[in-house]
């Protein structure tokens, strides 16, 4: 038996290898800078395979990678504040998942490209919320992040921008973020499973792509401290921008 025998019927060996390459690059960005994996992976991967398949694939491999970090995050996080913002994700994730499950693939790709472009601008702006803490605002931010996660697994920037601007210790902010995404990923797993997005195909593909993603994360982490974080973040921003442009459906006839 060959690797091709294990692939989903709509995924060729070439597509699988391309997804692995994208996963390695996005994993490297995640390992070094702690962000950017979904913003690089989703525009490119959804131009290679069906958006529903690659969103489920990214959810599975990232959920597995993040799970070991949750016990420590639980101990260090402000669980009360996190619970409030998680309420928003509880609403936002199913809505995003619904749109992912019913929209046409090309329409979904346009939305993903638009979302990622907007989130890149948010990152470039250096936005941090420094106003007062309001429950309704926390729920709204959680809902927005949850919607982005349900639709395209791109819920990071709103949460990071919100919590890193709060007057709390950085170790608590990081734990809050990790705990939030643990809950958000759980909601996504349930939503994706009930809508049929978590399928045999996505699980099989995760066994192939997941280890490559993990190698990329480890490689990126090994670079930390050896290169300027400012320079590497700039590289990540450029990669996200390239992913947005290269993933545009209008370029299908040229690039694919």
From TrEMBL:
Matches recorded under Pfam families: TauE
Compartmental location: Cell membrane
Keyword Nucleotide-binding appears in the UniProt entry: no
Protein name as it appears in the record: Probable membrane transporter protein
Family recorded in the similarity comment: Belongs to the 4-toluene sulfonate uptake permease (TSUP) (TC 2.A.102) family.
Topology in the lipid bilayer: Multi-pass membrane protein
Alphabetized UniProt keyword annotations: Cell membrane, Membrane, Transmembrane, Transmembrane helix, Transport
Upper classification of the organism: Bacteria, Pseudomonadati, Pseudomonadota, Alphaproteobacteria, Hyphomicrobiales
